[in-house]
Amino acid sequence: MAALFAIAVVVIGLIWAYRFNSALKSTPEAARKIGHRYWATQELRDAYEHTKKNPVDFGKHLPPKLERRYVIVGGSGLVGGDIVLQLLQRGQSPQSIRILDFSPLNRQDMLEKASGCDFVKTNITSVESVEAAFSKPWPSSVAKSPITVFHTAALIRPQERSILLYDRVSGVNRDGAVNVLNAAKKHGADVLIATSSASVSIKPVNFFTWPWQSSPKNYFQICDEKDFFAPIRTHEEFFANYAHSKAEAERAVCAANAPSFRTGCIRPGNAIYGQKTDPVLGTLLNDGEYVSWLPQVIQNYVSSRNVSLAHLDLEAALLSTPINSPPPACSGRPFVVTDKGPPITFWDMAYAAIVLSEKPIKLTHTEPIFIHMVAHIMEFWSLLLARFPFLTTVLGWKETSHPIHILQPATLNVSIHSFVDDSAARKPVAEGGIGYEPCATTLEGFCTQILEFNQEFSGAAGAKNNGGSKIAKVAKEAKGVAA
Ligand SMILES: *[C@@H]1O[C@H](CO)[C@@H](O)[C@H](O)[C@H]1NC(C)=O
Ligand SMILES: *[C@@H]1O[C@H](CO)[C@@H](O)[C@H](O)[C@H]1NC(C)=O
Ligand SMILES: *[C@@H]1O[C@H](CO)[C@@H](O)[C@H](O)[C@H]1NC(C)=O
């Protein structure tokens, strides 16, 4: 009898696990409606060749140069760095640009083009450090111009959801933003634009699925700005601590909007790509490795250069009425922005890298249920150490490090089908938008990035002068296998 009962429990358990795994591998009806089509090998190769011959001209959409000074907080990073480069490209002088960052300039493109800009090492969690960076005198040629502040610095830790660990992100993301806001006001800036995140609007997913459910609840979501116009949600209603801290920062920045001090936020949607350090394509190319576990999940991506462009569009829009007169409708609110559609799947990104990267990409598959199990173990470990600090201080136990640390339940909350609706940002300024217009697609953006990566990769291989041909051979084999 007992044996029969045990067998029944095991069988039901296995059926549930199987159903759970299938639910994760599903594409809900609402997401399927967009009619996604996978990129074909030839299509990728053609787009790549086209991008090589006709590089994307990011300059042609930039709003015109303004007689202003610029403070870019987080200016060494992905979005901040692109803002600096686009400001220079549209003709702002290096003397009129000040970069505030904890890390020195390290991007190759910035070392080449932005070394004439002022750089102040800044710890944004420290009021004194921010104050010192803002009070440093400016060159006399620009000292009288009005000031725009772009605040792009943030700590991106999508993996934690426990309030116990909230201060790991809130110090930089919320308090840091408030410090910058206060200093900007005090030092007479009249425009402040902060980078937020489309994930602010993401609601947690209930991954527990009943046998009759084909997909988890909330497995498909649309990212827009509606949540901003309702009271801020409770901690549990954000996908992770990161999103909650970004929402708090966004509210603080938008609440400060006034006729003499215009503010607004840009929510990039969803993952931002564009540099070796980006968490999606860049990391994949750099690691040369991809573990595929949810190849079917559909999401929008956004090029960091489009995100940067949206910041400049918002600046122009905020200045569309004279300072001290009523601010335009686009002020004091966030706008979500993305690349020109359609959204793509996780697999499309991996496949683009496999087909186009000169560095071979190793591909492995795993079942999503396995990833979910690992994620819960990781979180258990991390919370155990947080609850009992002596385990770390006395026994020397450590948290796992990057990249495995990312693998926690909260991260799974964003591994869902999510479309970005940036129709508000695309409206003209007169209708309350910011006139944002992405002119090309994620396919061209990916090709641009892989092209830049390949140029650097073959440059490095050539410089070392060893095994360039061997690498190319391995790459060709990898491509052959994948095609
Ligand atoms: C940044 O400033 C804060 C507040 O003063 C301080 O606690 C922290 O240690 C500083 N961080 C670094 C890396 O210096
Ligand atoms: C998603 O996030 C919420 C809130 O942080 C959490 O309660 C929920 O358990 C998460 N889902 C998973 C699978 O971790
Ligand atoms: C947006 O990014 C894509 C991909 O990098 C690019 O082709 C397009 O020109 C960008 N849009 C604008 C308006 O610059």
UniProtKB/TrEMBL annotation:
GO BP annotations, alphabetical order: steroid biosynthetic process
GO molecular function terms attached to this record: oxidoreductase activity, acting on the CH-OH group of donors, NAD or NADP as acceptor
SUPFAM superfamilies recorded: NAD(P)-binding Rossmann-fold domains (SSF51735)
InterPro entries hit by this protein: 3Beta_OHSteriod_DH/Estase (IPR002225), Lipid_A_modif_metabolic_enz (IPR050177), NAD(P)-bd_dom_sf (IPR036291)
Domain 3-beta hydroxysteroid dehydrogenase/isomerase: 71-352
Keywords: Oxidoreductase
Pfam families the UniProt entry points to: 3Beta_HSD
Family: Belongs to the 3-beta-HSD family.
Name of the featured protein: 3-beta hydroxysteroid dehydrogenase/isomerase domain-containing protein
Annotated organism of origin: Podospora australis
Upper lineage: Eukaryota, Fungi, Dikarya, Ascomycota, Pezizomycotina
